Amino acid sequence: MLHGPELHYQQLFEVTIFCASVAVVGIILTAPVLTLLLADSSYMQVIYIVPLMAFGQLISLAANQFSICFSLVKKTVYILFSAMIAGTTGFVMNYLLMGTFGYEISGYSQVVSFSLMALFLFYFGKKVANLKIQLKN
Question: pLDDT (tens digit, 9 = 90+) per residue, 107-120?
């Protein structure tokens, strides 16, 4: 059972992810309308990438929350490693698959790379930096 600072950090994590999820849903719902109002029709062909990009940013936000524990224990090299994993994964996926699948691969590569970053930070945060966040359904 969490108590004290760990409980407050858990509550902050849950509120942050909840608010960001609401914002993601809002972005996904308003993007087509805003695109029609503010851009020409050529942008509508890529509108389905918006949910992937928004979801990728939500995962990135969770990873950022996981990285705080590394800063507190002065083991920021793990943040560097996670960023290198995410950057390399995104670059390689885009380089190898952009020619075959086109620009839509950028949304998928963002989700995959940020997911790997979040998993790395969560796993090593528990092992190395005493991360106390509990993931709930």
Answer: 999 999 999 999 99
User: Closest Cα to residue 68, out of 4, 129, 3?
Assistant: 129
* Residue carrying the six token digits 């528990």: 126
Secondary structure of residue 130 in the 3-state scheme: coil
Taking residues 33-50, report their average pLDDT. 86
For residue 135, how far is the Cα from the chain centroid? 15
Cβ burial, residue 67 (10 Å; 0-12/13-18/19+):
buried
Per the prediction, the chain carries an average pLDDT of 90
Q: Give the global pTM.
A: 0.87
* Residues 118, 55 contacting (CB under 8 angstroms): no
How far apart CA 129 and CA 12 sit, in angstroms, is 18
Give dist(CA 134, CA 58) in Å, integer. 17
**Location of structure tokens 């224990």:** 73
Q: Encoding tokens for residue 1?
A: 């059972």
Cα torsion 62, 63, 65, 71 to 10°: value is 180
User: Which contiguous run of DSSP H or E holds residue 64?
Assistant: helix 50-72
